[in-house]
Design a protein that fits this description.
Blueprint: H1 17-27, E1 41-45, E2 50-59, E3 73-78, E4 87-96, H2 100-116, H3 125-142, E5 151-160, E6 163-169, E7 173-180, E8 183-188, H4 198-206, E9 210-212, H5 214-217, H6 231-234, E10 240-242, E11 249-251, E12 257-258, H7 260-263, E13 272-277, E14 284-288, H8 290-293, H9 298-305, H10 311-329, E15 336-344, E16 356-361, H11 379-388
Antiparallel strand pairs: 1-2, 2-15, 3-4, 4-5, 5-6, 5-12, 6-13, 7-8, 7-14, 9-10, 10-11, 13-16, 14-15
Catalytic activity: O-phospho-L-threonyl-[protein] + H2O = L-threonyl-[protein] + phosphate; O-phospho-L-seryl-[protein] + H2O = L-seryl-[protein] + phosphate
Enzyme class: hydrolase
EC number: 3.1.3.16
Length: 405
C-alpha cells in the first residue's frame, strides 16, 4: 500500500468484462509450466560451493483511469559486489506519489553503489546497510527529484557467502522457503512496516502523526477507535499517517526513502535488518513489491514457487495469480515486481542446523543485547523470536546516528 496520492484510495471506474478477460488471459497460466521471455541467470558462490539461479519480472499495473501511468516499481540485481564472487545484491523498490517512478529508480541505482563503496561492507553489513540508507535518503532529498510527497519502499537482500542480510524499509517483502519433512513452509524475512504494527503505530504517534483511516479522517467512522485489526481484514481502508492539522500525506506505511513531508511525522528511512543462515533446507527465497502480497499470503507465494523448477515460470505464475486476485477485488491492479532466487547445491555440513533468523535490527543502538542465536529452534519458535526482537528505534531516528560514509 502506498500513499494517498496514487494507491488504494482512488475510485477506479469499472472496466468492461472484455478488458478484464483480456488482462487475465495475458497473465494467467493454465499449464504446469508457463513460457516467459524473462531471462534465467545463474551466479556461483564459490566460498560455499553452491549457486543461485534467479529470474525477475516487473509489470506495470492496470489503471483504466490513468492508462498512461508509469510502472513505479524498480529493481536492482548486482553480482560480484566489490569484485567479490561471494557477494550479490537483490532489491525491489516500490515508488509512490507523483514522482514515485523517479524516486524508485534513484534509490535502486544509488543504494547498491553506496553499499559497494563501503569498505566495511563485508565486516559489518548491518552498519553498512544503515549508513547506506541514511546517505541515499539524504541524497534523494538533495536531488532534483521532488520527494516532498513522493518516495519509495525498499526490500533488499545481500548475499554474503551462505548468509542473507535482508534490509527492509516499507511494506514490500522477502520470504524464504523452509523444508520441514514433506512440507515447504514460508518464513518471512521482513515484517511490513505499517500502522497495523503496534510498535510502528506508537512510534509515529510519538513523532506527531495522526493515525486514522480515510473514513475516520472524513468523519464517516469514529476517529477515537484506534484498533484496526489486521491487513487481511482491514486492507480496504487501512490506517494512514496524517499531519496534525491537514489531510496529508496519507501514507499507509511507516518507513520509506524520500517522503520529506512524512519524515517530519516519523516516516523514516531506517531499515530493519535480519540475518539468515542458509542451509540445504532453504530451496529458494522471494523478494517482491506489495502488489503481490496485497492478496497473496507468504505461504501462498511459497506454495506457487515450489511447483516450478524454473524461476521464470514461478514469476509468471505469481504475476498471473496476483493480477487475477486484484481484479476479483478491485477494478485495477497494482504494479508488481518479483525476484525468485533458487538456492542450488548448497552442501550439507556435518553440523548443519535448521534455518535460523538470527536477529532483526531497526537501529543499532536500540538492539544491543537483544540478539541471540535461534539456530536450533522450530519454525514456529523462530517466528516467535523474530516477532520478539522487532526494532525499537528512537522516535527521532531519521537523524541517523551513523552519519555518512
Amino acid at each position: 500500500m502506498g500513499c494517498i496520492q496514487d494507491k488504494c484510495c482512488g475510485n477506479y471506474p469499472k472496466s468492461e468484462d472484455g478488458e478484464k478477460r483480456e488482462l487475465l488471459s495475458k497473465y494467467s497460466g493454465h499449464g504446469k509450466h508457463i513460457l516467459t521471455d524473462r531471462s534465467l541467470d545463474i551466479v556461483q558462490v564459490p566460498s560455499h560451493n553452491f549457486r543461485l539461479e534467479y529470474s525477475v519480472l516487473t509489470q506495470r499495473g492496470y489503471y483504466p483511469d490513468t492508462p498512461g501511468k508509469d510502472n513505479q516499481d524498480s529493481f536492482c540485481i548486482r553480482s560480484h559486489i566489490q569484485g567479490n564472487p561471494n557477494v550479490h545484491f537483490f532489491g525491489v523498490f516500490d515508488g509512490h506519489g507523483q514522482f514515485g517512478t523517479e524516486c524508485a529508480k534513484f534509490v535502486s541505482d544509488r543504494l547498491v553503489e553506496v553499499l559497494s563503496s563501503n569498505s566495511s561492507l563485508i565486516d559489518d553489513p548491518v552498519k553498512s546497510y544503515n549508513a547506506a540508507f541514511f546517505r541515499v535518503n539524504e541524497e534523494l532529498h538533495d536531488s532534483e527529484i521532488d520527494d516532498t510527497m513522493s518516495g519509495t519502499t525498499a526490500i533488499t537482500v545481500l548475499v554474503i557467502g551462505d548468509k542473507l542480510y535482508v534490509a527492509n524499509v516499507g511494506d514490500s517483502r522477502a520470504v524464504v522457503a523452509v523444508k520441514e519433512g514433506n512440507r515447504i513452509l514460508a518464513e518471512d524475512l521482513s515484517h511490513d512496516q505499517t500502522p497495523f504494527r503496534k510498535d510502528e503505530c506508537e512510534r509515529v504517534k510519538l513523532c506527531g502523526a495522526r493515525v486514522l483511516t480515510v473514513d475516520q479522517v472524513e468523519g464517516l467512522t469514529d476517529p477515537g477507535i484506534q484498533s484496526w485489526g489486521d491487513e487481511e481484514t482491514e486492507g480496504n481502508d487501512p490506517p494512514r499517517l496524517w499531519v496534525q492539522n491537514g489531510m496529508y500525506p496519507g501514507t499507509a506505511f511507516t518507513r520509506s526513502v524520500g517522503d520529506s513531508t512524512a519524515e517530519k511525522i516519523g516516516v523514516v528511512a531506517v531499515p530493519e535488518v535480519s540475518t539468515v543462515q542458509l542451509t540445504p533446507e532453504n530451496p529458494f527465497f522471494v523478494i517482491s513489491s506489495d502488489g503481490v502480497f496485497e492478496f497473496l499470503s507468504s505461504q501462498a507465494v511459497v506454495n506457487m514457487v515450489s511447483k516450478y523448477s524454473d524461476p521464470r515460470d514461478a514469476c509468471s505464475a505469481i504475476a498471473g495469480e496476483s493480477y487475477k486476485l486484484w481484479l476479483d477485488h478491485e477494478n485495477r491492479t497494482d504494479d508488481i515486481t518479483i525476484i525468485v532466487v533458487h538456492v542450488k547445491d548448497l552442501p550439507h555440513l556435518g553440523t548443519a542446523s535448521p534455518n535460523g533468523i538470527t536477529g532483526i535490527i531497526g537501529s543499532e543502538e536500540s538492539m544491543k543485547g537483544k540478539l541471540s542465536s535461534n539456530m536450533y529452534l522450530t519454525p514456529s519458535e523462530r517466528s516467535d523470536m523474530f516477532q520478539s526482537v522487532q526494532s525499537e528505534p528512537d522516535v527521532h531516528s531519521f537523524q541517523h546516528p551513523l552519519g555518512t560514509v
